[in-house]
Amino acid sequence: MSGSLHAIPSARHGGNPLLRLIGLLSRICGIVAALMIVAAVVITCQMIFVRFVLNGSTIWQTEGVTYIVIAATMLGLPYVQYLRGHVNVDLLPLMLPPGLRRVLAVVVMLATLAVSGGMLWYGYEFWHEAWDWGETSNSPWNPKLWVPYLALPVGFGLYTLQVAADFFAMMTGIEKPFGLSEDATLTETHAADAASERAD
Amino acid sequence: MDPLTLGALVAVLTIAVLFSGISVAAGLLVVSAGFLIVFDGMSSLSLIPEIFFGKLDNFALLSIPMFIIMGAAIASTRAGADLYEALERWLTRIPGGLVVSNLGACALFAAMSGSSPATCAAIGKMGIPEMRKRGYPDGVAAGSIAAGGTLGILIPPSVTMIVYGIATETSIGRLFLAGVVPGLMLVGLFMVWSLWSTWRSGQASVLSAGSYSWRERMEILPRVLPFVAIIIGVLYAMYGGIATPSETAAVGALLCLLIAVVIYKLWDPRAIWVILRDSTKESVMILFIIAAAGVFSYMLSSLFITQAIAEWIGTLDVNRWVLMGTINVFLIIAGFFLPPVAVILMAAPILLPIITTAGFDPIWFAVVLTINMEIGLISPPVGLNLYVINGIAPDISLRTILVGSLPFVACMVVAIVLLCLFPGLATWLPDLVMGVAI
Amino acid sequence: AELRLSHQFSESDLRHKVAQMVADEVAAADVDLDIKIFPTQSLFKAREQYKPLARGQVDMIVFPLAYAGGLRNPYNLTLMPGLVKNHDHAARLNDSEFMDEIESILNEDDVMTLVHGYLAGGFAGTEECITAPDDVQGKQTRAAGKAFEQMLAGAGASIASMSSAEIYNAMQTGVLDAANTSSSSFVSYRIYEQVACFTPAGEYALWFMYQPMLMNKSTFEGLTEEQQQALLDASAKAEAYYLEEAKAQDTNAREVFAENGVEIAEMTEEEFNAWQTIAKETAYKAFLEGSPDGQRLLDLALSVE
Ligand code: NA
Ligand code: NA
């Protein structure tokens, strides 16, 4: 919420072309997600207009908008990871000496990868099952559910990619563990500095 | 293992995992998946995407990004400065008037933004440098904005009220109304404290320096009109039979974007992108936590932990106010470490049956819960508003901000006590507008 | 052994009482079988219970079967306007060849029925009575279920989709002019405070929804013979109770609305037929488009006297 174009932290690539590409992909996802949220705003306003001014039926809007926001959330995952926007509690990392902090960072990133990879795998099954059954939402609009469900494997796939890129960046020294500078400790200034890096 | 012991184990492990520095949403998924594998078997993992998607599959949730856009759009224009300046011109003669006008600006801005960090940023960008320039101590400047910003989730619209409404199946329109009077009361308490502390510091004469002519005071009023128009428009849409609260959010977001572009001439696509980027970032962060917390609460329910805790507390036979006090302490502690949305989603399914059995009103409790969450927003280690202040004024130390916001935390505690003594503060307005609750 | 039962209803709801009755009876039979009930969507969201049941991730559910109409189109016939005329007709339908067909589809998904049951509902209008299709012309209307939305749209109503919990506020603020939902929802959400006229489920009623208690078939077959018998006995007892109470709910709704000064309107046979004509052109037609075997099933259902 700092409101300026440059003040916001993001994933470092250290010149690595692959990391650069993954970062670009995450940024594109972010743009698409933001545009989808705008689309949701416009469609909802259109629905109110149809109902309140034209006194007409609104068949698809409520459902469509819900799926659009879900898709925006899923596509937003890699982008928010790229912007370091997923909020966390960095009390313990700050209390640890650099060596242990690095070990903890490896564990945390592997756990995050396990979660996103798992969500990708089971999300794919979830999508595939809806595809297989030909499942529809059973509303008057009645769309095929594999379309909105697709957001899950795609979003978590791209999220996994960005987390993997961050993991690689940390292992090769491009990025510091938890994005904390070596001498960051629990003393107040550093705590505030570190905090400012990942939430606003 | 008996569900209560299991519950204690879940609590300990959740705290351990979240303290590791993993993101809150991923941490909740790790804990949930772990317990589901051990106690329900590997096959239960295939349920997680369904529950994750199901949590997000709710039209009311879409109002979260929209109420955030409202705040972000206005925050990126001169509007915050206008509002701030208008209040200042009118309140400048009062000792400590600048703090009072900042708090007033926060309260007004909160009526347009569903998020606390957004409110904090919008007013703080202008208010903190100005207060420091005029000789207010850093702690007062930063603390008042940090605390004033928390009003964003108490005064409607409110992202956390939406989440509470969804989690407990209570009316969001009613919840919004319930926050109005307590919000005004809280900002009143903040102001009284500010005036009294300025007067006590003996610097009253210095801090009230500067005066404006009546002409200057009248001149600025038209510039506040867009604000008033948005607030009235949104309220009319919401309670005038045009749209449900969730739909109204879209009207508000569109209105704010249009006002930013048309009235404040925000033509630069990059500036508009900043609004969208910041809103997307905050919304996605919140929605990811919501979905992950949904999986977490499924795990708690599937292992019968939620039900066992509710039953256990039911058998305790303690005084209902002792119970309420304990719940508040628990919420404040949870609020230290977790963002409000996560606390509400994890606590609501467990607490709601306990609350209603003990004879408390769920709408009233939403307000008490929200004020607890406001305390969490300005307490370390995870205090979203602290991060915002740090972004605006990096040279003010965390300790100074904390000490500066302490009196405001005290005001919040007083507000909770007042709400306990006079529950009508929360329930009167919704009952008046929407009829007595079902 | 322990069985987990999920449903979406509150603990004061009839459908919870039916589940509780089965649980209590089975416990009393002392066959080492314990049914743990997860009410109020505390395990799964209302519409997301069928697949976990089919996979055996939950053992039993009390479930409006039409919710799974997106997975199995024939289930949509269990919430089709005009297909069921009253509770006694519904009871005959439960024993019919039509329900045998539904059962065999359930069996394909490894699901079986323990307790049959239908609940009825009516219509309410904030200003005028809703009995004939002409009455909904141009009105913002909330309907319970896809088929009813299609039928009402066919009659010229504007459809606003929302949950039954939102009806009260929507009527109060004027977003909504008319609503269709179950008798128990009409009472529990105090809709009588907002409407001028109520058309309860009477001699001719349009809205009947099949809401059986279902069980995972493999789980059932994995039980001992005594356990299976105890479950079946409990279910038979619960089914009789369910039918009696379902009738009582309609009477209760009628009384509560009348006591609160709401005008009570009755649907005539002629009006019922007019609705059914529209339903045939809209809801039935849409149903048939989605199902090759639909016509046969529809004819089976319509053949029940
Ligand atoms: Na607000
Ligand atoms: Na905190």
From TrEMBL, chain A:
Domain Tripartite ATP-independent periplasmic transporters DctQ component, first and last residues per copy: 41-170
Origin: domain of life: Bacteria
Gene Ontology molecular function terms on file: transmembrane transporter activity
GO CC annotations on file: plasma membrane
Complex formation: The complex comprises the extracytoplasmic solute receptor protein and the two transmembrane proteins.
Biological role stated in the UniProt entry: Part of the tripartite ATP-independent periplasmic (TRAP) transport system.
Name this protein carries in UniProt: TRAP transporter small permease protein
Taxonomic source organism: Salipiger bermudensis (strain DSM 26914 / JCM 13377 / KCTC 12554 / HTCC2601) (Pelagibaca bermudensis)
TrEMBL record, chain B:
Any Pfam family the entry gives: DctM
Extent of the signal sequence: none
TRAP C4-dicarboxylate transport system permease DctM subunit domain span: 13-425
Topology versus the membrane: Multi-pass membrane protein
Protein family per UniProt: Belongs to the TRAP transporter large permease family.
Taxonomic placement: Bacteria, Pseudomonadati, Pseudomonadota, Alphaproteobacteria, Rhodobacterales
Transmembrane segments: 6-39, 59-79, 99-123, 175-199, 220-242, 248-267, 287-309, 329-352, 364-389, 401-422
Gene Ontology molecular function: any one: transmembrane transporter activity
Keywords, comma-separated and alphabetical: Cell inner membrane, Cell membrane, Membrane, Transmembrane, Transmembrane helix, Transport
Cell membrane in keyword set: yes
Cited function: Part of the tripartite ATP-independent periplasmic (TRAP) transport system.
GO cellular-component term (any): plasma membrane
Compartment annotation: Cell inner membrane
Name used for this protein in its record: TRAP transporter large permease protein
Subunit structure: The complex comprises the extracytoplasmic solute receptor protein and the two transmembrane proteins.
